[in-house]
Amino acid sequence: MDIASLIVGRARADIVQCEAATRMGDAVALLAERRIGAMPVMEGGRVAGIFSERDVLYCVAKEGAAAFDRTVGEVMTAPAITVSPSAKVDEAMALMTRRRVRHLPVLDGEIMCGFISIGDLVKSRIDEVERDAAAMRDYIRTA
Question: What is the mean pLDDT of residues 4-10?
């Protein structure tokens, strides 16, 4: 299965994102409000980086409460590690594991067409295993 199959039906407008100039305190509030762990950071219509819980933790540990007045662009993880819609789920999982990230913007050229998490990929693999198991049970019953 490819990444395009995972994001089909998801509206690009539903991707929670922020601008690099967004104040970190506001971005943290958005993460909390939406109950998400990360979001793409946009600059000039392009993905400039990823802002995640880890970025918040590292910055607050270093600077304390003053960190919340910094911009997301100052603390985000950049450049963003991305994946194309044609990439296979297993390839994306390997990339996430190798680069130690949990979220990937899906880029078609320079245009973001999706945003996936490790949870999306794990769910996809579980669904695939369950489909295979059901097919095997059906095969055994009819043999």
Answer: 92
pLDDT in tens, 68-95: 999 999 999 999 999 999 999 999 999 9
Stated length of the chain? 143
Q: Mean pLDDT for the chain?
A: 95
**CA dist., res. 134 & res. 139, Å (int):** 9
> What CA–CA distance (Å, rounded) separates 4 from 7?
5
Closest C-alpha among 93, 91, 113, 88 to residue 103: 93
Measured CA to CA, the distance from residue 38 to residue 94 in angstroms comes to: 19
User: What phi, psi does 88 have (nearest 5°)?
Assistant: -80, 150
HSE-up (13 A, CA, CB side) for residue 8: 8
- The residue with tokens 């913007």 is 105
Name the token pair of 139: 């095969």
Sequence-separated (6 or more) residues with CB below 8 Å from residue 59:
24, 67, 70, 75
What is the reported pTM? 0.86
Residue whose structure tokens are 């980086």: 49
